[in-house]
Amino acid sequence: xxxxxxxxxxxxxxxxxxxxxxxxxxxxxxxxxxxxxxxxxxxxxxxxxxxxxxxxxxxxxxxxxxxxxxxxxxxxxxxxxxxxxxxxxxxxxxxxxxxxxxxxxxxxxxxxxxxxxxxxxxxxxxxxxxxxxxxxxxxxxxxxxxxxxxxxxxxxxxxxxxxxxxxxxxxxxxxxxxxxxxxxxxxxxxxxxxxxxxxxxxxxxxxxxxxxxxxxxxxxxxxxxxxxxxxxxxxxxxxxxxxxxxxxxxxxxxxxxxxxxxxxxxxxxxxxxxxxxxxxxxxxxxxxxxxx
Length: 292
Fold this sequence. Notes:
- This protein is mainly β.
- It contains two helices and 18 strands.
C-alpha cells in the first residue's frame, strides 16, 4: 500500500513549482506533497470571470415594534442574463424573509435594465451598476411586513457573452387597415449548439391583427381543449431545424392590421450544448415591428 501511495504522489511532487532557483526545501516529502495538493486546489478554486453572483448590503428597513429587515441586492453575471434578487434577514427571529417588488439598474446614469423581483434582463456587460429596488418584505410567524426603497452599487466583471443567434426583419412599419409583408431572417453565428430553434411572432390580440404565412414550418398556435381546432390568428410559431453558421433561415409573414394598430414582437428560443441538462439553451428577443 505504501508503494502505491508514493507512486500516486510522485507526479504531484514533480509538478510543484521550483520558485527561488536552487532553494533547498527542508520540509519532509509528505509535507511538500500536501503543499502541492493545496496549491493545486487553490489554483482550481481561484475566482474567475465566469458565471457568478455578487451581493452587497442595500438598506435596513425598520417598522413599529422593533421589526426590521436587513436587505441586500444581488446580481448574477457571466450568462446572457443578469438575474437580480433581494435576499433579506428579518428580525425579530432572524428567520427567512419573502421579498418581492421591482428593480432598476443604471450605468453612467442611464437605465440599462429593469424588471420584477426576483427577475432577470439581458446582461449589459461588465461595469458598475447602481441598482435601486422597491421591495416588500414579509416574514411569518414574526409578522414582519415592511416596504421601502433600497439601493447599492455592484461592480460586475464577467464579459458579455457573444451573441449566438440574430433575428432581423425587413418590410417597414405596419399601417391600420392594410396588409404588410415582413421578411424575417434568423441567423445562428455560433458553432455551439445545433440547427434547431423555435421562432415566434405575436401581435396584440384585442386589435384583431392576423398573421399568416405559406411557410410549412409555421403554424398559428392551437388553443382550447381537444377536440377544439381553434387557432390564434394573431400569433405564429415556427419550428426551424436547419440553422447553421453561414446558412440563415428566412420566414415571410403577412400581417393584416384592422382599424386599430398593433405591434408585432418576435422571439427566438434555441438549444445550446449541455447534453441532457434540463435547462439548456436560451431565449432571444427579436425586433419589434411598430404600427403607425
